[in-house]
Amino acid sequence: MLTNAASFSCSNCGRGISNTATIKVQRPISLVATAVPDASPITAGATAGFTFNLTNDAADAATGVRLLVPLPSNPGLAWTLTKPAAGCSIAGRLLRCGPARLAPGASLAVRVQSPTTAGSAGVITAAASFSCDFCTSGTASASIV
Predict the structure, then answer these.
(1) What is the Cα–Cα distance from 71 to 67, expressed in whole angstroms?
(2) Is 141 exposed, middle or buried, given 0-12, 13-18 or 19+ CB atoms closer than 10 A?
(3) Dihedrals φ, ψ of 32, to 5°?
(4) Does residue 57 contact residue 103 with C-beta atoms inside 8 Å?
(5) Which of 19, 31, 54, 78 sits 20 to 30 Å CA-CA off 138?
(6) pLDDT in tens, 74-121
(7) Domain boundaries, the chain
(8) Quick one: which of 116, 140, 117, 144 has its CA closest to 129?
(9) pTM, rounded to two decimals
């Protein structure tokens, strides 16, 4: 905390005025992101799934936390939230979470899954990006082969 006080007085104005202002200096926020596939490899007809996790490793709360994941668009994939977190939703092929507040040591975890077809064959990759107030943004990705 930075505190500054100011005051003034004068001989012909009757009284002086004083005031104090405080500025909180925020420590840098450190978020750790992971993206983990449920299984890899999988066969056509199996369920593909990913879990995305953000953990606040800082001593202060993380505010304005956002997670964005453009979900893979291989043919035959239809993503749903199976471990929803407050403030998370899928619109089209975009998983979006936030803005949220993460207390020190707290995590935001969300899981998505999709059935697969023969048309889904190939590598299925999901890359998450995150941001928050007073932190460095980052990414995490995982693939199912």
Answers:
(1) 12
(2) middle
(3) -110, 125
(4) no
(5) 78
(6) 999 999 999 888 899 999 999 999 999 999 999 999 999 999 999 999
(7) 31-144
(8) 140
(9) 0.82
